[in-house]
User: Which sequence fits this backbone?
């Protein structure tokens, strides 16, 4: 059973950087052919895909957030991380990490279909406020 767990600060000040880590257990982030995404849901809004890193370490980013987003991984800890710079209150959201199987999923990116993700973290609330 694969489990994902998000961690990071729940409160970030405007203009600062938001940093979150997803720790994966029960499976390696290097296993073919999975992609590991960061997804968020602002209050009262739908899911928004931020970006992903695949089994081979290749990264993918939302076009609208690409200039502010960086995703990396630490294979020794079986973790992948999100950094979002220059945050504003509009970045306040529940942040999730999730896994999709590239052999099955077709809409795992910008037009994500949440049903195509087989494992999700429980989510972590991040509030941007001074």
Assistant:
């Amino acid at each position: 059973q694969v489990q994902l767990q998000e961690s990071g600060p729940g409160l970030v000040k405007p203009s600062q950087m938001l940093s979150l880590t997803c720790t994966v257990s029960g499976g390696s982030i290097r296993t073919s052919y999975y992609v590991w995404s960061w997804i968020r849901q602002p209050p009262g809004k739908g899911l928004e895909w931020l970006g992903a890193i695949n089994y081979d370490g290749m990264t993918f980013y939302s076009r609208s957030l690409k200039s502010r987003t960086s995703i990396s991984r630490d294979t020794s800890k079986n973790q992948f991380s999100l950094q979002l710079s220059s945050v504003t209150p509009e970045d306040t959201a529940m942040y999730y990490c999730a896994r999709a199987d590239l052999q099955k999923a077709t809409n795992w990116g910008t037009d994500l279909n949440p049903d195509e993700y087989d494992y999700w973290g429980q989510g972590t609330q991040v509030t941007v406020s001074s």
Observations:
- The chain has a mean pLDDT of 97.
- The CA atoms of residues 12 and 128 lie 5 Å apart.
- The radius of gyration is 14 Å.
